[in-house]
Amino acid sequence: MSKNLAKGDEIVSLLREVSELDWARNSFSRVVYRAAQGEVAEDRSAEPPYTSFRFKSEQPGLLEALGRAVKSYTGKVDWVLVSHDRSPSAGINWTICPKLTVGLDAEIRSSGLTVQQYFRERMPEFGVSAYEDMVDFVAYLRQCAVPAC
C-alpha cells in the first residue's frame, strides 16, 4: 500500500472543525482490529472511500460552499456531494464520495455485489487512486469551503 494514501477520516475531521455533526461514518484505507490471533491489519484501499454525515443543525451557507468546492475540484478523481432526505425523520444525510461510485450504481446493483465488493473485485486500482486523491481533495475543501463559513 502506498504511503501517500489518506486514512479515510480526513473529510469528517474537516467537517467537525466547521460544524457540529449529528453523526458521521466513513471508510478507511487500512483497518486494524483485534481478533483471536491478536491485532490484525487489513488493507481496504481497493474499496473506494466515502464519508456520510448529518449536521446537528443545517447551515445552508456551509452546504452551498461545500457543494461548490466539491463540484469545482479537479484532481485524479471526480467527487460528489449527494443528499438523502430522511423523511419522515428530520434532517438530511449527506455523502461525499467518488462520482464513479454513484455513476455505476445501477450496474453495481445488477451485479449483486456491494459497492465495496464491486470495486475490490473489478476495479481495485480505483480505490487506491481515490485514497491518494483524497489528500489533495481535502486540502482543496479546506481552502475553498471552510473560509466561507
Helix/strand structural class: alpha+beta
Compute the gyration radius: what is it? 16 Å
Query: How do the strands line up in the largest sheet?
Result: 1-4-6-5
Mean pLDDT rating: 90
Provide structural commentary.
By secondary structure, the chain is an alpha+beta fold. The protein is 42% helix and 25% strand. It has 6 helices and 6 strands. β5 and β6 form a beta hairpin. It starts with 9 loop residues before the first helix and ends in a 5-residue tail after the last helix.
Concise synopsis of the structure shown:
The protein has 149 residues and is an alpha+beta fold. It is built from 6 helices and 6 strands, in the order αββββαββαααα.
Task: Output the keywords.
single chain; 149 residues; alpha+beta; 4-stranded antiparallel sheet; two-stranded antiparallel sheet; 6 helices; globular
Question: What's the structural blueprint in terms of helices and strands?
Answer:
Layout: H1 10-18, E1 21-26, E2 30-35, E3 38-43, E4 51-55, H2 60-72, E5 79-85, E6 92-98, H3 99-103, H4 105-111, H5 115-122, H6 124-144
Antiparallel strand pairs: 1-4, 2-3, 4-6, 5-6
